[in-house]
């Protein structure tokens, strides 16, 4: 068996084509361009690269990216105040705080300064709660992208055993909640889980989200499993790709799998936010 590729580049391209049409319709109806504000703290090269990629994608779909760069020495209070300014700015539709921030900053406090109606990256407690309760709202961008990718390939989830390896508040935990809302049986694991190989071997659907290259060995994979690798370090994912591809039915490449879906989800949620802001404004007049 050689696994079929879960092609995030192709699926994200289709999503972005749809978003581009929706943006054009929005501009025609409301006479303004949707705005995504990206907040970048410090000089981390990878973060700068990610922000440039997001700005490029914004331009391609007709959105405007408002980039705010802040010195790495700023305080949590200063960052929180800036994000609150953006939350109060009627011209801004979505806010993205690029992760990670410098270690001295209280990242959770900064995330919570984002107005829920502009949390297009799905990082606030409000967004997590709406995901867990399946009440709409904005999904965490990477988990939302993973679900869209699985849906694009008609991966059945109801009744399946999904194993999530990773417990971060913006990836591991929310993707487990999203899988649970689709009637999967979800097991959470992490890098310190005892007997990890045995638990991975039970997975009909495996989501790897730890950030440790090749932590998950190919021989652990259940024959026919669907493998989603959301890890990325030095062009390697969390899963030993070549060996896993010999056992899985579907697998994401690294890069080219989950990453493009994250940006597509972010922009899809930004146009959704813009429409909701216009609707709320009209209701209030």
How do the helices and strands line up, and which of them pair or pack?
Layout: E1 4-5, H1 8-30, E2 35-41, H2 45-61, E3 64-70, H3 76-88, E4 94-97, H4 107-112, H5 125-132, H6 141-152, E5 161-165, H7 172-181, E6 185-189, H8 196-200, E7 205-208, E8 226-229, H9 241-245, E9 250-251, H10 258-283
Parallel strand pairs: 1-9, 2-3, 2-4, 5-6, 5-7, 7-8, 8-9
Overall SS class? alpha/beta
CATH structural architecture of the largest domain? 3-Layer(aba) Sandwich
What kind of sheet is the major sheet? Answer: 6 strands, parallel
* DSSP summary, beta strand count: 9
Please mark out the parts with pLDDT under 50 across 5 or more consecutive residues, or reply none. Answer: none
DSSP strand content: 5-15%
GO molecular function: methenyltetrahydrofolate cyclohydrolase activity; methylenetetrahydrofolate dehydrogenase (NADP+) activity
InterPro entries: Aminoacid_DH-like_N_sf (IPR046346), NAD(P)-bd_dom_sf (IPR036291), THF_DH/CycHdrlase (IPR000672), THF_DH/CycHdrlase_cat_dom (IPR020630), THF_DH/CycHdrlase_CS (IPR020867), THF_DH/CycHdrlase_NAD-bd_dom (IPR020631)
Protein name: Bifunctional protein FolD
Family: Belongs to the tetrahydrofolate dehydrogenase/cyclohydrolase family.
């Amino acid at each position: 068996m050689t696994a079929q590729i879960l092609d995030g580049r192709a699926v994200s391209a289709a999503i972005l084509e749809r978003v581009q049409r929706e943006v054009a319709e929005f501009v025609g109806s409301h006479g303004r361009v949707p705005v995504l504000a990206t907040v970048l703290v410090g000089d981390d090269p990878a973060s700068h690269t990610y922000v440039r990629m997001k700005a490029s994608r914004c331009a391609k779909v007709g959105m405007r990216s408002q980039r705010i760069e802040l010195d790495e020495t700023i305080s949590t209070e200063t960052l929180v105040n800036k994000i609150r300014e953006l939350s109060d700015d009627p011209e801004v539709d979505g806010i993205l705080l690029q992760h990670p921030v410098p270690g001295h900053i209280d990242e959770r406090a900064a995330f919570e300064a984002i107005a829920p109606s502009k949390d297009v990256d799905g990082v606030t407690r409000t967004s997590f709660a709406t995901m867990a309760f399946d009440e709409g709202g904005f999904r965490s961008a990477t988990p939302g992208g993973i679900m869209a990718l699985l849906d694009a390939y008609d991966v059945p989830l109801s009744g399946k055993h999904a194993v999530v390896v990773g417990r971060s508040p913006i990836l591991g935990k929310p993707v487990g909640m999203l899988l649970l809302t689709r009637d999967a049986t979800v097991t959470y694991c992490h890098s310190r889980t005892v007997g990890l190989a045995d638990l991975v071997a039970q997975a009909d659907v495996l989501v790897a989200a730890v950030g440790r290259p090749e932590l998950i060995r190919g021989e652990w994979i259940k024959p026919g499993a669907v493998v989603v690798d959301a890890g990325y370090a030095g062009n390697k994912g969390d899963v030993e790709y070549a060996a896993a591809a010999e056992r899985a039915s579907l697998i994401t490449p690294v890069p080219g799998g989950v990453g493009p879906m994250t940006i597509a989800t972010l922009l899809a949620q930004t146009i959704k936010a813009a429409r909701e802001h216009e609707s709320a404004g009209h209701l209030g007049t």
